[in-house]
Amino acid sequence: MALEQLCDVVQRCQAIKDEGFSPEDYDLFFTAGRTCIEQGNSAQVLSILVDETNKNIVRCMGWNLLGPIVQILLKKEDRNLHHCHAILTHLLEVCSPKELLVGLLEQMEEADTGSITETVNLLLKPLQTVLLRMGMKKASSVGMALSTLLSQVARLPVPVTKEEEEEDACGLCHCCTALLQFVKPFVEEIKEGVKDNNRISKDNELRVELLKFCMKSLSNPLLEVQLKDPDTLLKSPLRDFATEILIILSSIGESLPDLLSRNVLKRREVPGFLEEEVRYPKESLACLSHLLFVDHIAVDIFPAVLSPIFVLQCNMEYTDLLLSRTEESRLQKGLALYEKSLIRVEDNSLPVDLLELKTFFSVPQNLVKVMTLCPDQTLRTKSLKVFQLSIDKFNTEAKYKFFKGMLKTSHHAGVEGYIIKNIKNQIDFSLKPCNGNDWFLGKHLLPLLRLVLCFPHGPETDLLQNLDRIMESLNLLRYLLIRDKEWENETGIWTELYKIEDSYLKPLRTGLNMSKAHYEAELKSVKENKKISSKDTKASVCTVTVDNEKLPNMTPEMQIQVLQSAVFTFDLIESVLTRIEEIIETKERPLS
Amino acid sequence: MRGTSNKREILGTRLCMSGEMSSLEDIFSTNQCPADVFASQGIDVTPNGDRGVCKIVKQHGVEGEKPMIGDRVCVHYTGRLLNGKKFDSSLDRKEPFVFNVGKGQVIKAWDIVICSMQKGEVCLMLCKPEYAYSSAGSPPKVPPNATLVFEIELLSFRGEELTEDGGVVRRIKVKGEGYYNPNEGATVHAHLEGWCGGRLFDSRDVSFVVGESEDVDVPLGVDRAMEKIQKGECCLLYLNPKYGYGKEGKKEYDIGSNAELLYEVTLKDFEKAKESWEMDLKEKLEHAVLVKQKGTQYFKAGRYNFAVIQYQRIVNWLEMECGAGKEQQQAIQALLLVAHLNLALCFLRLREYSQTVENCNKVMELDPVNEKALYRRGEARLLRNEFSMALMDFKQVLQVNSFNRAARSQIAICQRKIREHHERDKKIYANMFQRFAEHDAKVGRLKRKKEESGISDQNKQGLKRPCLSQDGS
After folding, report:
1. FRET partner for B267 with CA separation of 20 to 30 A, picked from A110, A505, B142, B197?
2. For chain B, what are the domain ranges?
3. Taking CA atoms, what residue in B is nearest to A272?
4. pLDDT-based confidence at A156, cuts 50/70/90?
5. Structural domain B276-416, CATH architecture
6. Which residues in chain B are closer than 8 Å to A299, comparing Cβ atoms?
7. How many A×B Cβ pairs under 8 Å?
8. Paired strand residues for B191
9. Rounded to the nearest 10 degrees, how much is the dihedral formed by the CA atoms of A354, A360, A361, A364?
10. Mind listing the pLDDT tens digit of every residue in chain B (473 residues)?
């Protein structure tokens, strides 16, 4: 039935000259052709299509049959698969490349997650053939094809473990390898031109399309992928893909060091150069940098003469970007990149000028956010480790300035406490023979100490919330009073002491007494209440809600526990404070 | 530019030319320790004379031509460890290495040695770890505390382009300090010397606000360069006419039309303006109003490039702000709308039509029926020869305001242009079809000849055809 229809329309069309086929002809050809193919008559369809007399008809309408053919080929059920393959091959030879391209990309786009790999497998070669047939005018079509392919491939789940990558159940590895084969001839074409004394201009369309492809591959899937090193996984398709993308970039005339430093050496933009962010997305460059410095990919094509500080400066841009995100994969990459960039630098070598760069301000801010807010314990620990590493790399003056900045901006008692501990270590280091310096001794130290030993909210300060900071400050003060003898006064602490007593120790003492009294009274009343209410059994003291969700009521026992631990904390603070007061008293006695 | 093939020859001839020690390979093939070779033959090029960087010139370059700080230099090199192991080579990559010299982008030894080289020079260099990767090494290639040996050829160098279009080129005479540069709105104090064709036309100490150098008769290029200059730096700036005094020239200085200028700038000091991220919204809004006035002042004076800088600042400040409350929101939107509208007009005057279209589109995101934006986009498109799109814009202007006479006459112009265009097309295609017809006729004749000679082929196909139609029935 359908076959007759197809023959009819073909016969009728044979008589039409100059390809003046009507829309009805197209419709009929398509529906009849599709039905034939679906009903398993592909052999007959094939014989009609290859008939020389029908060449014009096939050239104009044939591409319509791509859809049905591809569907059959994907299902792989038909007995006449080889006929369908032959039809596809024939269409690819005869029809206009432009229409074929549209047809093939349509099929590519329609693939759902489950069939992406199959579709890529089936259509990549045909797509390549069609594009190569286009000759010199293919650039935008290549771009369109690459963008469609990548968007589809990027939908595939990324293998996480070594086993998953080896198994490649969802086919990402396979698709990436296939993509490389696909772009090869186009890369070769540009490569020839680049080698040939830069015959290819920066704006050559095909070159730009390949650049876009590489950039897009870097941001997705590669930024999502955690590459395995060769020791873990000897043959890794994803690592090969990453390596090849970097090689392509370099062979189409994009110098990798220039890409790395793009954001640091940015030239003044002039009107008319809107494309910067489009051509070189920062996220892709961040991935490139991670591949180079963390995964050590493509080391052979990257010059080994760049200065470590310059590399750090470039990577700060990318670290900042990665750490400003909340996805754990990004944070992990940001931390690793920062760590590796810092390791390359010698201890105590980063000059203070660097802190003038915006990224040296924003990266620590982001790092603090990870340290304090990230839900993942390992990332929090790691970020603290990297934070300390970054401190170690600054020279003395830079450390000083960095501490000062952090105390002013971090607004987190834990972080402040950590910084104060670092200050103490620096002072300790400086007091040792031959380590003397201007920053952690004498006149520069005092302004820093004033930032540490202060109590902006006076006796009303919440001691529990500020515990970390207060304890570290007191430890520092106690250390200074014991370590730096009054007659030496290298740190200047003894001349400053009367001020510290007034502005810090006394208000702290008052606050401490107030808080202690308050909590002890509270504890007492709860205990009494408990005695009374234990007779009434049920008694909730207070309710706590988090995120509109009511937490279970606090029982009196729990409340007593909390109050008790607060009182212990105050005792802890008091013990150090008392010790300091004693030291001061013994020193003052001979004077009085 | 990239004399790769040239390089081969140079290396080749050099091997025959020089006497005892020709290349890295030779040094490592003899049993001598490379350090000893450099100790006996090398010149110490370190500023403090600690012999941390020693070089042996293997081939002299062009006398007197040495790179200046910041120059974009192009080199070929091979680097080896003391044991002879090659860890890096641009020759293997078949691509010269390009970087800005003297700015800490490369290991210290390189910044020192390249500045000592002449164009075309080939040298061997030995550098101690302090001048290379010190105790940290460079994983995975260079181990900690490694002394490195390089062979370097300086292929070429040129000044650093400070703008994307290459209109401002800088060469640094004295390096400045820090990583701190003036920003848009910063106040700079500098000494300037302006030269035109070898004639000094301007020499003075001057202070101005970056983005407003016009107020003190300092050309755009110097203004635009400021963001890249460090405190204490002394540099030469080569300005093309667009960044100099342009088409009009400058009468006071006796500078004619389209003159290229050379400035020597010493940045003595500056006070930075607040960066966008250091300001809160209220500050931004207050500043934006002032900046808008400044922009309008420049626009009225015909200084469109400077007007663009001012309006662009408003966009940079406010683009990403959303504002709390309706009042603030409206204030932001109003300022952004005016900024884009004025930018569109400036770019129209500067003949940057795609920028005009871009800014009009931004206006229409805020106000889809903005009459001025539609009209300006129409103008830009008309000037870009996109007649039918321009026509649509002007028609839309009339829909918004049917009394807009200017739009009416623009429509007439568009229609005329479209007609003219059609006529021209017709002429071209008429000829083309005629030519095609002739061509086809010729091909047809040839084909027929061929067919006559290849009958047997045709017969085979003839047999196939009935067969197929049987299948089909």
Report:
1. B197
2. 24-158, 168-271, 276-416
3. B355
4. very high
5. Alpha Horseshoe (1.25)
6. 140-141
7. 127
8. B205, B266
9. -140
10. 444 444 444 443 343 344 445 577 777 776 677 888 888 888 999 999 999 999 999 999 988 889 999 999 999 999 999 988 999 999 998 889 999 999 999 999 999 999 999 999 999 999 999 999 999 999 889 999 999 999 999 999 999 999 888 899 999 999 998 878 899 999 999 999 999 999 999 999 999 999 999 999 999 999 999 999 999 999 999 999 999 999 889 999 999 999 999 999 999 999 999 888 788 899 999 999 999 999 999 999 999 999 999 999 999 899 888 877 888 899 999 999 999 999 999 999 999 998 999 999 999 999 999 999 999 999 999 999 999 999 999 999 999 999 999 999 999 999 999 998 888 877 777 666 666 667 676 666 666 665 555 444 444 443 334 333 344 33
Q: What is the pLDDT of residue A2?
A: 83
Q: How near does any CA of chain B get to the CA of A309, in Å?
A: 8
Count CB-CB contacts under 10 A for residue A18: 6
Tell me whether 0.85 is exceeded by the ipTM.
no
Burial A439-461 (b: 16+ CB within 10 A, else e): bbbeebbeebbebbbebeeebeb
Q: Which residue of A has its CA nearest to B152?
A: A305
Fold type of domain B24-158: Chitinase A; domain 3 (3.10.50)
Mutate: best of B179, B304, B313, partner A, most A CBs <10 A: B179
Chain B interface disruption, residue of A305, A312, A345, most B CBs within 10 A? A305
Q: Is A17 on the interface with B (CB under 8 A)?
A: no
Assess B470–A contact: CB distance below 8 Å, yes or no: no
Distance from CA of B203 to the nearest CA of A (A): 26
The pTM assigned to this predicted structure is: 0.83
Interface list for B 69-128 with A (CB within 8 A):
77, 79, 87-88, 90, 92-95, 97-100, 104-108, 110
> A93 — phi, psi (to 5°)?
-80, -35
**Number of alpha carbons in the 13 Å side-chain half-sphere of residue A287:** 24
- For residues A360 and A315, what is the distance between their CA atoms, to the nearest angstrom? 11
Residue of A nearest to B150 (CA): A305
Side chain identity at residue A129, one-letter code: T
B chain contacts of residue A343, beta-carbon cutoff 8 Å: 136, 139
Residues B191/B174, Cβ–Cβ less than 8 Å: no
Q: Which amino acid is at B21?
A: M
Which amino acid type is present at position A526?
A: V
- Give Cβ neighbours of residue B174 (< 8 Å, ≥ 6 apart): B69, B232, B233, B234, B235, B266
Query: Using the beta-carbon criterion (under 8 Å), do A273 and B352 form an inter-chain contact?
Result: no
pLDDT single digits (tens) B104-119: 999 999 999 999 999 9
CB contact under 8 A, B468 and A250: no
Share of chain A above pLDDT 90, in %: 59
Cα(A448)–Cα(B192) distance, integer angstroms: 41
What is the C-alpha to C-alpha distance for residues B327 and B307, in angstroms, rounded to an integer?
27
- B224 touching A, CB under 8 A? yes
Residue of A nearest to B108 (CA): A307
Confidence of residue A264 (pLDDT cuts 50, 70, 90): confident
Judge if B24-158 and B276-416 fold alike in CATH terms.
no
> A305 and B79 in contact by Cβ < 8 A?
yes
Overall size of chain A counted in residues: 592
Locate A322 and state its tokens: 């990665």
| B322 contact A CB<8A | no
CA trace torsion B363, B369, B371, B374 (10° rounding)? 60
CATH 3.10.50.40 fits B168-271, yes or no: yes
pLDDT confidence of residue B470: 41
Judging contacts by C-beta atoms under 8 Å, the chain A residues touching residue B161 are 267
Q: Determine, for residues A307 and B108 on separate chains, whether the beta-carbon distance falls below 8 Å.
A: yes
